[in-house]
Amino acid sequence: MHTITKIITATLISTLLINSPYAGTELKKDNLITHEQTKAQVELFKQALDEFGATSPEQVISIWAKTEKTRNGVYHYSVACKELKAKILKDLGDPKDTYWIYGVSSPWLDRYEVISKNKISATEYIVKLKFFWSTSSGSFNTTENTLRIIHAKDTWCVKEVT
What pLDDT score was predicted for residue 1? Predict the structure, then answer.
């Protein structure tokens, strides 16, 4: 994970912890966060994610694959271009109302490979990824994604997935 991603993650987590109603207090029923407060915090985190992006096509690939490994759809959202973010919101629902969880406990991602990485121009790559899945019984199957990665403003993002 690149330094900027670590800094962003640490900042978001520390902000959440510092502003937590539990900070410096004993956990009591009257200190619990309400559902509405949680929804508001999630919306603020989403807004922060919209301000940041990957610094290279390689970082986009790594973060994209992390969704498959962790089943956390936030990673896809974080490296998606604006149009793809809108599609993710349409498909998964608003993050303050859903969990954005991809997949189930089995199969799980064993590993992934970059099958091909074609530089179309200085601002565009077509990358084919192959995901290798496993279950408790052993290897399961493979799936593939082809990502169209572009340089938009100051960051790299996934424009299209097939």
Answer: 46
Q: 3-state SS string over 116-131? A: EEEEEECCEEEEEEEE
* Type of residue at 103: G
Domain that holds residue 121: 3-161
Q: Is the peptide bond before 57 cis (omega within 30 degrees of 0)?
A: no
State the Cα–Cα distance between residues 2 and 34, nearest whole angstrom. Answer: 34
Indicate which CATH number applies to the domain containing 75: 3.10.450.50
Q: What residue has token string 């610094």?
A: 55
Q: How many domains does the chain have?
A: 1
pLDDT per position as a tens digit, 78-137: 999 999 999 998 988 877 777 788 878 899 999 999 999 999 999 999 999 999 999 999
d(CA 88, CA 95): 10
**How do strand 108-121 and strand 124-135 relate by DSSP bridges?**
antiparallel
pTM of the model: 0.75
- The two structure tokens encoding residue 118: 């074609």
